[in-house]
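Per your request, structure below.
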């Protein structure tokens, strides 16, 4: 808030008001008596309670004296006593827990408002109110009624009606008999919803109106209809586990353990006014379920109920979430504007992007999400816009979401020993036809960084381990020359049924994959092709080890029965003909890096290793026999590039 501005002054005033109310209530409870000054106390008896726009309107009869001093004959309703409308805020109503026939003492500074063309005065500023229990019978009635649910009339009044806008389609004002909702907390399950059809009868299309009217504690009596824009998983910190059966609503139960995979299913939803919310649902038992949820739910309409606000976040606090929201803004169809007529000519898409978003979560045991999977895809749904990698690399800006279809050539886990293995980043080197057909100016292979917060399904992990696969990257983050898979990024083996190609070349690769050759512009943590001449071998760092010729186990032991033989624990057999494997460091002279040293780490069963070992075996391990030999093209991963001394350290790799 701006220092000294109206908003800051109002905030301070509200804080002082809340403190004064809390102090007054605490004083009444601690003194166990009603304040002595009764000259300006307004005493009323509640006849009827109605709720409008989150304000509780009590139709009351004014009393001249407290019921404790009234005779039983005077306690009956007297038609001659004045009738008042008393307004209680949500907080005051929750504190009083009033019912018809309750007597309320309202202390100053209450105010009386006289309306034109209205005979009943309105009492406002009723923060300092106290319910009076006049007898033991009343106390017993209070205890009994406190365990039951009271139905109150609730009038839903639309903004169009409030501002007297002529709109036949949005007349949401309904008779009170059709909108009786429980004012006490209650838990619904499938059976309860059938027994109490009125409990979830009201359906709204505004997330903001639901938040303002229902508050942070939960939406128990109404539903809000939204469109599912994205389905993804987030690492679950405190989640809910639940079970899903067909089109039935999801029922959640708290998570009692953190057994992997501990991920939570989430929905990014949008209402008819364009507002977004993230709904955090249950924890999934398997991350492989995410693909089917994406196919079944994205673009469909759903009703939310039993939600509670987990957090109200802003753009500065959740850059990742708002980068995804920005990729879906502006809406593809005109959206409604609060406070305006909803005629088609009044709808507009010229709206600023959202600046805040509510994170919603489910309440245990509540009916909270019901997706109509049979319904057609909504016009408000924006499928992922698929682009070629070349187009993405040419895109300006930072922290922009992008979706692409690429072939994974090589994967590498970032080795940071201080970071646990399950929290390390993984590099996926990918390419597509748009990069392979480029001659100059853009790399043929791009590194995609997959952070630990990006949830990968077991199906994806197994597919990457098995070999080169085409993978669909949905809503990855592009910025500062890097493509990063972060929270809310989804990797799929199949392209979504609905996606927008936007004229991009998405044809599959037909020929062999080419890498960029090593030159002065090559950077560390990338892959390249290398050719050169062998100028040296580092004999001090070379080592070899025997492996099992059957299973490849490199941890052989000495056979207990015969110390001259090796034994494999995996095969449980003696290894008579072990396969010798080695690691070498070879120095090359490369035309593209003539001023520096190029050091290549070569491993067993790779091109350069096979060539060198053959020559070494033929020359009985004479290093001079391999000097001057030309090698290439080799596929290499670049570990580091230093300028002092001028040295490039590479490792020969095998592409998937």
């Amino acid at each position: 808030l701006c220092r000294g501005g109206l908003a800051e002054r109002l905030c301070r005033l509200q804080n002082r008001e809340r403190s004064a109310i809390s102090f007054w209530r605490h004083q009444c409870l601690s003194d166990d008596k009603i304040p002595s000054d009764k000259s300006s106390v307004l005493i009323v008896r509640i006849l009827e309670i109605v709720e409008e726009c989150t304000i509780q309107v009590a139709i009351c009869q004014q009393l001249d004296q407290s019921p404790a001093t009234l005779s039983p004959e005077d306690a009956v309703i007297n038609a001659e006593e004045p009738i008042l409308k008393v307004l209680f805020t949500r907080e005051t109503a929750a504190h009083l827990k009033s019912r018809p026939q309750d007597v309320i003492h309202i202390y100053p500074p209450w105010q009386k408002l006289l309306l034109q063309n209205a005979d009943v005065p309105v009492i406002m500023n009723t923060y300092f109110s106290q319910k009076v229990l006049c007898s033991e019978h009343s106390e017993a009635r209070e205890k009994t009624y406190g365990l039951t649910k009271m139905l109150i009339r609730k009038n839903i009044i639309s903004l169009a009606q409030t501002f007297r806008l002529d709109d036949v389609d949005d007349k949401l004002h309904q008779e009170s008999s059709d909108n009786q909702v429980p004012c006490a907390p209650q838990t619904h399950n499938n059976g309860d919803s059938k027994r109490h059809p009125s409990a979830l009868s009201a359906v709204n299309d505004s997330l903001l109106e639901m938040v303002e009217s229902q508050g942070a504690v939960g939406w128990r009596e109404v539903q809000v209809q939204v469109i599912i824009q994205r389905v993804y998983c987030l690492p679950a910190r405190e989640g809910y586990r639940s079970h899903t059966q067909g089109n039935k609503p999801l029922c959640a139960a708290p998570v009692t353990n953190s057994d992997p995979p501990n991920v939570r299913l989430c929905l990014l939803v949008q209402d008819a006014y364009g507002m977004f919310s993230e709904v955090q649902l249950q924890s999934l038992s398997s991350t492989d379920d995410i693909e089917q949820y994406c196919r079944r739910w994205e673009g469909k309409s759903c009703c939310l109920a039993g939600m509670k606000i987990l957090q109200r976040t802003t753009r500065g606090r959740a850059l990742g979430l708002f980068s995804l929201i920005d990729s879906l803004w502006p809406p593809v169809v005109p959206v409604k504007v609060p406070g305006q007529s909803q005629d088609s000519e009044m709808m507009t898409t010229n709206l600023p992007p959202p600046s805040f978003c509510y994170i919603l979560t489910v309440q245990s045991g509540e009916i909270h999400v019901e997706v109509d999977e049979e319904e057609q895809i909504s016009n408000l749904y924006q499928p992922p816009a698929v682009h070629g990698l070349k187009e993405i690399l040419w895109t300006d800006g930072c922290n922009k979401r992008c979706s692409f279809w690429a072939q994974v050539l090589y994967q590498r886990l970032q080795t940071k020993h201080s970071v646990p293995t399950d929290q390390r980043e993984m590099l996926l080197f990918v390419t597509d036809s748009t990069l392979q057909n480029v001659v100059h100016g853009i790399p043929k292979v791009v590194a995609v960084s997959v952070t630990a917060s990006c949830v990968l399904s077991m199906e994806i992990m197994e597919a990457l381990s098995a070999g080169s696969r085409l993978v669909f990257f949905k809503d990855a983050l592009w910025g500062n020359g890097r493509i990063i898979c972060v929270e809310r990024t989804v990797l799929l083996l199949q392209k979504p049924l609905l996606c927008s190609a936007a004229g991009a070349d998405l044809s599959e690769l037909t020929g062999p994959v080419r890498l960029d050759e090593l030159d002065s512009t090559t950077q560390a943590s990338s892959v390249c092709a290398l050719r050169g001449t062998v100028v040296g071998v580092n004999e001090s760092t070379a080592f070899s080890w025997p492996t099992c010729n059957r299973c490849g186990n490199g941890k052989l032991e000495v056979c207990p029965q015969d110390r001259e033989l090796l034994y494999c624990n995996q095969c449980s057999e003696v290894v008579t003909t072990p396969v010798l494997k080695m690691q070498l460091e070879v120095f090359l002279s490369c035309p593209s890096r003539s001023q520096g040293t190029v050091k290549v780490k070569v491993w067993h069963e790779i091109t350069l290793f096979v060539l060198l070992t053959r020559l070494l075996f033929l020359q009985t391990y004479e290093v001079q026999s391999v000097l001057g030999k030309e090698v290439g093209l080799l596929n290499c991963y670049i570990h580091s590039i230093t300028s002092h001394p001028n040295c490039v350290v590479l490792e020969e790799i095998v592409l998937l």
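The two ends are 55 Å apart (CA to CA).

Regards,
D.
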